[in-house]
Give the backbone structure.
Amino acid sequence: MDTTAYWQEIARHSPLALLLDMDGTLIPLAATPDEARPGADVRELLAALAAADGLRCAVVSGRPQGALADMLGDIPQLRLVAEHGMWRWDGAAWSATAAVDAATLDQLQSLLEPSVRANPGALLERKSASLCVHYRQVGGSGREAFLVSTAALLNLWLSAHEDYELLEAAQAMEVRARKVNKGSSVAWAREGEPADLLCVAIGDDVTDEDTFRALAPGDAAILVDHGRRRPTAARWRLADPDAVRGFLGALLQLRRGGDAPAGLLPQPIAARAPRPAPGARGDRAPRLLAISNRLPHLRDPAQPSGTRKQSVGGLVSALEPVLAERRGLWLGWSGKTTAESEVGEVSTDDEGSPALAWIDLPADWEERYYNGFCNRRLWPLFHSFPAHVRFRDDEWDAYTQANQAFAEAAGSLVEPDASVWVHDYHLLLVASGLRQRGHRGPIGLFLHIPFPGADVFELIPWSRDLLAGLLDFDLVGFHTPAYVDNFHDCVSRLTSARVSGGAIEHGGRVTRARAFPLGIVPASFQEPPDPAIAEEIAALVEALHPTRLVLGVDRLDYTKGIPDRLLAFERLLQLYPEWRGQVSLVQVSVPSREDVPEYAEQRQLIENAVGRINGEYGEAHWVPVRYLYRSYGRNHLAQLYRAADVGYVTPLRDGMNLVAKEFVAAQDADDPGVLLLSRFAGAAVELADAVLTNPYHPDGMARDLDRALRMEPAERRTRHQALLAAVSRTTALTWATDFMRALESVR
């Protein structure tokens, strides 16, 4: 069914329920909530929708009950949901969906008010189940310091109030009772209605994802994306509030039996384009196909050519040149799922750089393949955390099926003799799938995480199947020689293959394993700062003054050892009390895999530790630990690295850890900071001139931290010179070039 036919069928269905967000969806965002009000055109549209036969219309907003009632409460038959689901208006009366202790939020309000009053432009919005800090109008020079101090206060408070959570909204941070969310409005819309009721939900921010996820398979979720792409459970998109109002008008027109211009209808978030069959590509066939589970940002098909959001990750920087040189293509999962059990068709975007291809996966595979076997089984085991692992047959089945799906998509995109470069632990069986489909060209794998020893690897019930799949690759690359040795040991002990030097002979095929240490693009961390970013970082440093800055930057993951790092910092304050009031730890934790329980537990553990340390040692003029649960761009990070006295990089186990290399590249050569690095990061092999530490030994790590803080300038410069030489020797570009030369040599 095409898009027009689909929306005609939805629009004319009875009964039909509309669940509409307001700010950013029905009306544009504004500097303050008071400035964003629905005009007469919006009110007339909502009145028409609410009065239509067989149609139920509800506005589902984060606005306070009183404000929403004031703006829309007089429209007959219009239902209202306020404060993300806390309050509901059925046309006759308001009802609360949960009991929230007002005194608890009073306490948080009292905690935040001094900081909000001290920062012109900041606004504190109190609701009955939440408290929102708006910072859209806070000036650039003071914004970063305000965000740091506010985030520290919120995280300290949240560590003692587990029933509340922090939401990142557009230019705002909102603390909300966990039991309240917009998703509850879906069940409410279905109450008392026939079983065949369909729901259409439209929203623009992360709180609307609760609504999208609560929908039934036959319902429709529409993201208002404002020209920006982000992960979403929605399958359809509209550009902005004007487009939303145009669509709602078209829906009424269709419902009355008329026609509506196709340009007013929502469009699929990933538009599909046919790909030529193998053998029909001629000279334009890709000579190299890169495959990874996820892709860099896709271009929005509804926007002009070339407006794909730029991704600045190290892997993208490394692969772009080799793909461009070989007329290459990058294949991955779109991040979207199909409602059916079938894999989506292959889609492509040839207009950007690099050229991309993608598939949608069945919804149940996201849980069993990606969250399950990949991230709850292989990830912890390969990082030597067997206690985190319990294997399930259905997850293994999904893993093998997903690998076959990637192999089938790959086979449809390139000729049988093309080079294929597969990335990471999600796709260890893709070479087997390609060989089964007759692929003759060289196939390589680079594993971006550690490879464990045989005693750990053998815990996988299908360890021999995985090794057989790995031996269908021509080249397998690892970060360090130790991981190569582990791979050789596994192959020797668990298969009949013969290992001789760097070659492994098995089933008439020769597989080579080598170390290719991944690097960064060092010069990119010495680029002049954006003036606004420079002001923000200067404000942060000023907020910490006169203390020394110890900086941790990690994706939120239990392998990164953040709780152990906090414990060692606490031991520093205990063993060396002279550092109290003289040093501050800023820990940046980039959100990751928030739907996996182990990661939610890790976040809670970290926030509890931060609260305990700050409560025990903090003073009116000094907060020992500033915890920032957010991500930063490269320019932000480069300035943070340069401002730090110590780079605190202490994972319990890591394949490489590029933060260590980024920290080195960003330093001022005349006055560099000290890199304190875990011995169990792959980067420690190359960065031996860092202060190497054992993250499993808190007292020892505290002593190493003390040593780093006291290091004389001459020693800091000598160490930095050696570290920078190592970082400059093996970059992202040399890594990709070396791997491709080795892969193509096996022809």
